[in-house]
């Protein structure tokens, strides 16, 4: 499974806990994050307090595709 497909799988599984946003950069507010997936190439963190994801390790193109998928999850 490639990184994008793995990211989609994880985001879908945790979507209800992170339905307020998805980002590819670290928050500067110091929000408390929990790593929910890390294989060395792909890292996905979640902030349960504010319900959002931070995703690292995808290309810009892959992250854009993940964002589209994320929006679709919210439309279901």
A few lines on this structure:
The protein is an alpha+beta fold and 76 residues long.
Give the beta-strand count.
4
**What does the main sheet amount to?**
4 strands, mixed
What is the domain total for the residues? Answer: 1
Mean pLDDT: 96
Instruction: Output the strand order for the largest sheet.
Output: 1-4-3-2
Any chance you could write out the topology, listing elements then pairs?
Elements: H1 3-14, E1 22-23, E2 34-38, E3 43-47, E4 52-56, H2 60-75
Parallel strand pairs: 1-4
Antiparallel strand pairs: 2-3, 3-4
Helix pairs in contact: 1-2
Textual characterization of the structure:
With 76 residues, this protein is an alpha+beta fold. It has one domain (3-75). The chain is 37% helix and 22% strand. The chain has a four-stranded mixed β-sheet with strand order 1-4-3-2, covered by helices on one side. Strand 3 and strand 4 form a beta hairpin. It is globular. The N and C termini lie far apart (24 Å).
């Amino acid at each position: 499974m490639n990184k994008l497909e793995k990211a989609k799988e994880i985001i879908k599984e945790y979507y209800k806990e992170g339905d307020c946003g998805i980002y590819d950069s670290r928050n500067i507010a110091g929000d408390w994050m929990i790593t929910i997936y890390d294989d060395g190439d792909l890292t996905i963190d979640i902030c349960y307090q504010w319900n959002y994801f931070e995703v690292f390790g995808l290309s810009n193109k892959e992250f854009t595709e993940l964002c589209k998928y994320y929006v679709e999850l919210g439309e279901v």
